[in-house]
Amino acid sequence: MGLQNTKHPKAKQAKILMLGLDSAGKSTLLYKFRYNDVFLTIPTIGFNVDMIEIQKDFTLTFWDVGGQEKMRQVWCHFLEDTDGLLYVVDSSDKQRLEESKKEFEFVLKNECLKSVPVMVLANKQDLPGALNAEEITRKFHIKKYCSDRNWYVQPCCASTGEGLSEALQRLTAFAKQHRRSKETSTVFKEIKTL
Ligand code: G3D
Ligand code: MG
Fold it and tell me: In ligand 1, which atom is closest to the CA atom of 156?
């Protein structure tokens, strides 16, 4: 997947970082966001980057970073300048929920993600036994770990697209708000140095 040019070179951009264990459905989601279609995904070796024009003057750049154990060790190199964390969970994979939760908690502790809004996607809702959004919220202690930022848990199914437009809308609002507060604090810092 390549980096797409937007029609408006001066459009504001916000960076969305997609994380989650391997096979959670990140690449499927990104294809669905981008093309509204389902593609056959292969395990992401490294990362994919794609830009999606949300409005004429606003684009989201999605960084879809591989979730295999080896890649998780380098997640920290992708955190800078993030305006929104999109954390994808396979809600049906009960055996790996604990592992996913640990990675989530670990990454949130990083200074680079301080106050960055979080959208957790409780994916694969079509599969039997999938935990719902409330269960994922409780299991991942999201209220505790995200008490200092905007957060939301969206149930979805990447293969059918269910729940994705709601997720994208809310994520856009979160990312815009985050960018605005970053800009405001930069202005304050500049004023202080005058
Ligand atoms: P990743 O990028 O997080 O590693 P992928 O995950 O997007 O590559 O998806 C891993 C597998 O999960 C793929 O199946 C994909 O089709 C499937 N998948 C993604 N989202 C959903 C969903 O909402 N429901 C169901 N049932 N499956 C989903 P394969 O078989 O290619 O490994
Ligand atoms: Mg992938």
Answer: 23
DSSP tally for the chain: helices H, then strands E: 6, 6
How is the chain split into domains, by residue range?
A: 12-193
- Entry pTM: 0.90
| CB distance 86 to 164 below 8 Å | no
How far is the centre of ligand 1, averaged over its atoms, from the C-alpha of 29 (Å)? 9
Residue % of the chain over a pLDDT of 90: 66
Residue 126 CB–ligand 1 contact under 6 Å: yes
The predicted pLDDT at position 162 comes to: 96
68 is catalytic: yes
Question: Would the CB of 20 count as within 6 Å of ligand 1?
Answer: yes
Pick the CATH number of 12-193 from 3.40.50.300, 2.70.40.10, 3.20.20.80, 3.40.50.720: 3.40.50.300
Crossing angle for the helix pair 164-192 and 26-35, to the nearest 10 degrees: 90
Please list all protein residues whose beta carbon sits less than 5 angstroms from ligand 2, which is an ion.
Answer: 26-27, 44
Which pLDDT value is given to residue 172? 95
**List of the chain residues with pLDDT < 50:** 1-6
